[in-house]
Design goal:
Length: 344
């Protein structure tokens, strides 16, 4: 734009004397020299950060059909905890049930060994403690009211008094529903629409709030009615998983990554030219120094199993997405590529 303006002004000034002259020093517009290759490369540096405080609330359905699912949750919980143990995060992890009839439940955190109500970094034998908290048996009330239990845990005076200290205003909040039934709270004590509005308003920090569901979308013993936990997930954001899947280790791994505030997806600032993306992860080492890892595009076999490589490229979201690898906290993901707009 600046070049065009200069030409116009120059012609106008010369035109006053009745003559036209070519202004030296300006190449023809269609013959501008291309940018050097090094100037066409885009480098995006993205720091893997976490929110230092995080509260994780599991809502575990304890109705008559949930025994096997509770066992699977406890058995695969170590995969979840891999992202918390020795992470430096100040975490609280607690469990409530779907039983809103029993006064010992009704949104109250279920105790572990020695009466502890939640796990935190100094808790001893955390995996075993969680097993005691989460394997609640199958004698809970039906119909199940998991949303009521979650709401009561964080809002009801009686439950909050029991749970005092678990929920922190400045911490991220991640709720995880494990249930094989729909929710039947149905306005007692809160409707699903009001629940979404209330829950969404608890945090105003990006990434500081999720609502995940490991549930069934099929009618169960209580019939076809009730509210769908997945509707909350679709509006709040989080993992949505079929409780009938046998791969519990995968969902516990995904939930752990999410709750720890770690990311597997990294967005490019510009659209890349096909085949030019290079990915490195620079991880700080204890005592100083940096470990550099170079990663490659993932290759899958016909069954969708990862054969080699690390990430995929999502053209719609303009992002790279790691398949299994998760960069450590404070690692720097470096994306180098040729921007499509820079190619002449």
């Amino acid at each position: 734009m600046g070049r065009i303006r200069s030409v116009i002004v120059g012609v106008a000034l010369v035109g006053c004397s009745g003559e036209f002259q070519v202004i030296p020093g300006l190449p023809p517009l269609d013959q501008a020299p291309p940018a050097p290759p090094e100037q066409m490369r885009q480098v995006d540096r993205i720091l893997q950060t976490t929110q230092p405080e995080v509260d994780v609330l599991f809502m575990v359905d304890n109705s008559c059909s949930m025994g096997p699912e509770q066992s699977e949750l406890a058995k695969n919980f170590p995969l979840f905890m891999e992202y918390f143990l020795n992470s430096g995060l100040a975490y609280h992890i607690g469990v409530v049930s779907s039983d809103m009839n029993d006064p010992a439940h009704q949104g109250k955190l279920q105790p572990g060994p020695g009466g502890i109500l939640w796990l935190e970094p100094h808790t001893l034998n955390q995996v075993q403690a969680f097993s005691k908290m989460a394997v609640l048996g199958n004698g809970g009330a039906s119909p199940e009211k998991g949303l009521g239990g979650i709401y009561s845990a964080l809002e009801s005076f009686d439950a909050r008094s029991w749970n005092q200290g678990f929920y922190r205003d400045d911490a991220a909040l991640h709720t995880m529903v494990i249930a094989d039934e729909f929710d039947y709270t149905n306005g007692d004590p809160i409707s699903i629409a009001d629940f979404v509005s209330w829950y969404d308003g608890l945090k105003d920090v990006l990434g500081g709030l999720t609502f995940s569901t490991v549930v069934s979308d099929q009618p169960g013993a209580s019939g076809p009615g009730g509210q769908d936990y997945g509707l909350v997930t679709s509006q709040i954001g989080g993992v949505n998983w079929d409780i009938g899947e046998s791969s519990w280790f995968r969902v516990l791994d995904r939930l752990g990554v999410q709750a720890a505030g770690l990311s597997r997806e990294y967005f490019l600032s510009r659209v890349p030219m096909e085949g030019t993306i290079e990915v490195e992860v620079h991880s700080p080492l204890v005592g100083g120094g940096v470990r550099v890892e170079r990663h490659t595009l993932a290759v899958f076999d016909g069954d969708g199993t990862l054969v080699k490589g690390h990430y995929t490229y999502d053209e719609v979201r303009n992002s790279i997405v790691y398949v299994e690898y998760v960069p450590d906290s404070l690692a720097e993901v470096v994306l180098t590529y040729t921007a499509l707009s820079a190619v002449p």
